[in-house]
Amino acid sequence: MSDTTKRPSMLAAMFTMKCPSCRRSRVFVNKSILPFEQMVVLKDECEVCGQQLKSEKNNGGGINYALTMILFFLNLCWYWPIFGLSYKDNSVYYYLATSITVVLVAQPYLMRLSRMIYLYLYVSFGDSRRVEVKE
Ligand SMILES: [Zn+2]
Description:
This protein is an all-alpha fold. 45% of the residues lie in helices and 0% in strands. The chain contains three helices and no strands.
């Protein structure tokens, strides 16, 4: 008996970019986001369980848009109490500038995360036949 019967946490696996089926192996070709051209390149299949990871539909673009909007809102949550927002001065523009900067810096990670969410929507734990799951 190997430890593949244990079920790693889904959220932890998703945020650390692990395979949706076995939650053990990384799904991206490169560990870091550099080089940028290969940032969101997925492996063909999982090294541990053989789960197929690539598909033509797998782009996660819509999810990326949603995540970007969520990040704008989260920026508002910390910016407003700290710096204050008012229509009487330029603070709204400062907020937008700050927010856009944060979103741009976080974008590589958001793009990867949206791919991960997409994968996790279509592949559930133990989908690949090589891993035996005991519920
Ligand atoms: Zn796997």
